[in-house]
Amino acid sequence: MNIHVVAVFKFNENYLMEAVELFQTLVRETRKEEGCLQYDLIEDKNNKGTFFMVELWETEDHLNRHSGQDHVLNFRKDVSKMLESSTEVYKGFKTL
């Protein structure tokens, strides 16, 4: 069963350019992963510094493997000092 994920990132405006560079690497590498069906970065049009990562994975196992990948771990480490608040992550299965 496919699993959908939406992660919400809120960055300090001083770090936006650096954050986008880190996202570029994360997105490029993640899209190569087995089981990744969608991995898109969306910037909130009304709230500067707020981004949504919209993900679709073939299975929850694929998503779990993704979480341990080097590019994900490096991203988390590098962005931790740039975030205004904790990242919110929502996971679910399509109901309709």
Beta-strand residue fraction: 25-35%
| Number of helical stretches of at least 4 residues | 3
Total number of β-strand segments?
Answer: 4
What is the helix fraction of residues, given as a range? 25-40%
Sequence of secondary-structure elements: EHEEHHE
Rounded radius of gyration (Å): 13 Å
Q: Between the first and last Cα atoms, what is the distance in angstroms? A: 13 Å
Provide an overview of this structure:
With 96 residues, the chain is of the alpha+beta class. The protein is 34% helix and 30% strand. It has 3 helices and 4 strands; from the N terminus they run βαββααβ. It has a 4-stranded antiparallel sheet. β2 and β3 form a beta hairpin. The longest helix has 15 residues. The mean pLDDT is 97.
For the structure shown, list the relevant keywords:
alpha+beta, globular, 4 strands, 96 residues
Provide a quick synopsis of the model.
Helices cover 34% and strands 30% of the residues. The chain is built from three helices and four strands.
Summarize the SSE layout with pairings.
Blueprint: E1 3-10, H1 16-30, E2 36-43, E3 50-57, H2 60-67, H3 70-79, E4 88-92
Antiparallel strand pairs: 1-3, 1-4, 2-3
